[in-house]
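As described in the Methods, two query proteins were run sequentially through the folding procedure within a single session, without resetting any intermediate state between them. The first query and its resulting structure tokens are shown here.
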Amino acid sequence: MVDEKPVFDEPLYNIGVVTRVTGVTIATLHAWERRYDFPHSARTSGGHRLYSEKDIARLRWVKSQVDAGMQTRQAIQAARRLDAQGRLPASLPVEAPLPAATPGMPALGREQLVDALLRRDLESADRVMGEMLAFFSPEDLTLNVIGPALEDIGTAWEQERITVADEHLASNYLRHRLLMWMVTGPRPQPINPIVLACAPGELHEGSLLMLGALLRRQGWPVAYLGQSVPLDDLASFVQVIDPPAVVLVAMGAETGTALVDWPKHMSQLAGRPIVGFGGRAFLVQPELCARVHGIYLGDRLQEGLARLEDMLKVK
């Protein structure tokens, strides 16, 4: 069984969500953190605070005690003692809970997210992501919000509705979110990491990033190499790491064709590891699948993830 990090310990919620759920104002949160180091929030790469479900439970409990007349310092000390003893309540009723998720919320959230990013409003983008995380898991957001959002941003650039700078800002914002989920996922299984790499010359890494985040959320360790990895360098890396699997992604016909020669570079590995491949290149030119050695992971990301996991569990 995988020894996973409990979901309630993961820093997922931004400060706006936390204030609405707990009733503790932003100013009070900042004051408690400054004076009492409570709660000890995580930070995004941009310096924004992130809180876990456990942080929210602590804040609710402390606020309930302060509202009942206890001094703040005493309430925080009591919360820490109870938490250390495993006696702090996991949750408390919320007077004004957020509304329930609706089927159309991912699409609406994607539209709001893309709009904020294309307006260069990263604060609003953070708020949208935080609100979505209050209802949906990172896996759901990866597949139903971030993936479509990356496509929307790419289309806007192709249609010359945004500049290269705007496209980079928006894409990198989503890229950093996926990279964060690769780092903060459940504790990985005690095996060598799965190697993820783009084909030589391939700069479009969105689907590979999504696969990496989804694998980590399932407890698989990942060594993410990213864009345009030369096959000689990949072979040397794989020989040292000895991964259970390598996944190669190509989005264009030229980079897909570049993968035809990968066995020449990794012939010394004698059939190890599993090598899977995918990407838009193989949708546009299906005949490429027959020319590239390895296992085609399928036409859709979810299909590729399931196929890869099945092979890893058997290996």
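Immediately afterward, the second query was submitted; its sequence and tokens are:
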Amino acid sequence: MKLLIASNNANKVLEIRQILAPHFDELVSMRDAGLDIDVVEDGETFVENAIKKATEVLAMCGYDAVLADDSGLCVDALNGEPGVRSARFAEGFEHDVPKNNAKLVSLMRDVPDDKRQASFVCAVALARRGRPVLCVQGSCSGRILREARGSNGFGYDPYFYFPEFGKSFAELDSVTKNSISHRHNALSALEEALRLEGEKL
């Protein structure tokens, strides 16, 4: 099966490829396919945005299946923020990682160490022609660091501490991160949903 990954985020595409490569004959990004489709992410939840992206891109391309995800950081002390606004957390800026991280650090400055719990959340939607859309979620729990640690990963990874490994996401190599991440957990849930549906990836 040839799968189109409905994302223009090169880091996300790389992670999805690394995780799903054993299960598909070919994984193609929108850039690889020569597609320039920008879906407005105006949903109130990760699930709404993932389904919207997958279905809209499927309607505009010639592929049999489209995979889309929406993900973000949810911080308990910030009432779930930045959530679906993770990429545009810093007002007036889109995908400005340094400004997003600076705002996070500023808002969390006075939060005590025992109140800094957070989760990365990912919703993955698989849209297929003539079949119902499958959408599942995965999450990964940790806490927010006061200072950046590590140089791997992207986005909020340097500030997201994963207690089980004693490291931030940015201190993990890609293979390790992709074995425990929110995206990995969502894609694993998708595999299980397909198995229960009687379809093998």
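The longest strand covers residues 117-128. We note this only descriptively and draw no conclusion about the first query from it.
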